[in-house]
Amino acid sequence: MVDLSGGTPAALNARARALARLLQRRRDVEEAVIGYASVTVHFDPEETDAERLRSSISRGLKAPSPDQVPGRLHRIPVIYDGPDLADCADRLGLDVAELVRLHSATTYRCFMLGFVPGWGYLGPLPASLRLARRSVPRTRVPAGSVAMAEDLTGVYPIACPGGWHLIGRTSLPLFLPGSGSPAVLQAGDRVRFQPVDR
Amino acid sequence: MPEGFKVLGSGPLATLQDLGRPGHRSAGIPPGGAMDRFALIAANRLVGNPDGLAALEITRGGLILKALGPALLAVAGGEPSLRLNGSVAPAWTSFLVSAGDRISLEGMDLGERAYVAVRGGFLGQLWLGSRSTYALAGLGGLGRRLGAGDRIDRGEIAGAGVAGRRLEWGLRPQYSGHARLRVLAGPHLELLLPPARDQLLQSEWSLTEECDRMGYRLRGPAMAPLATDLASFPVTTGCVQLPPGGQPILLMSDHPASGGYPVPVTVISADLPLAAQLRPHDRLRLELVDLDQAAKARAEQRAALDSIRS
Known about the structure:
Chain A is α+β, with helices and mostly antiparallel strands. Helix content of chain A is 23%, strand content 28%. Chain A has two domains: 2-62, Gyrase A, domain 2, CATH 3.30.1360; 73-195, Cyclophilin-like (Cyclophilin), CATH 2.40.100.10. The chains are: A alpha+beta, B alpha+beta.
């Protein structure tokens, strides 16, 4: 695992993405997986010269950070009627319309995928929308639920347990198991939520 | 297609598993696959299969199969108590069955998981290059656990295979309910103060009831919580996470692709089969080794498996 430090979270994440792209091109790297501020490198120690890989990582880290790659833009339609919407607005001291406006007025970056297939960690959330996670997670959150917690937002791609606040839902599938690349979102993509009525 | 099997009983959890689907972690998809890869590969080799064909992963026993046609089978993993038409049959040994034969895996004398391989491999949905069932998404294999009444087909490969091929006890992993799992230093071992580090590496931990294919929650001495707030990062099978409660979690095949808890140590791949055979309330200790020792353990394990080929 390569841990990056020194810089804003967004800059560290951009460096992690650039390093992962570089390493993913090597034939002796099985997978270079992007974290917020890290890259986890999977390799076969018997097929790889670990020292060469290490020095290649060091070179990759010294190379100047690439210009911000724009990343694909996904527009996700959202019906803002989640079971936690009113409670969140209440705790944030906002009315529901204002919460919806703030949540849908920001273009988020997909920092990394994880948790469950197709789940993208999207952020940063506007400071006025930040709440700690639910103290008791739900045992089952429906697929398509749009959620937020702390400085992040995201969409549950499949039904699974979850501890984030549910503020809406989308009909846009983010996990396509039949496709060769089943996750619709990729690290580095941008996401904009669009309020819709039905 | 050759005749397969009818499932008459499946026990608490039986799924199709092969070597999994590594390489999709960037999509949030865990590698999955057999928890005990040694036993999976051994069972496959005993029936003359390539290593990666799908077998049945049986948790705690309870499996009853009726053969719908002739087939060559082998069962490996821990010490399964196996019967063929009611008579005791040896595990870790290939054997022939004919149409109408009843194969039952009643329980485990030692361990938690057994692998039933058939010459030609079991068939099921291939997803991202693997037939392993990933229950959370309902994909791979049957897309769910086996149940009574299911019919499972098998594939066909050239040649007949040999009955009576066996892996000697001394060449199998030394499964135990008191396991010693060798670990490598993980990315956050230095975050632990020396007393906590000693506690992690010198204590005996026990498995709680919260153990499944995703991971095992362990119980032991209360460890001082770490005052760290880590940004989420990709994790892998064998990672030992240390949540704020101080009770570690060992990540297994279907683990979530990312986590935010510190990972002080990671279990070496050669010892994951031992971990796979632990039951709730079994004990384990973690022993720190270096990369060379891990590589040596892996090579020894490969040599043991290669003895089945010769």
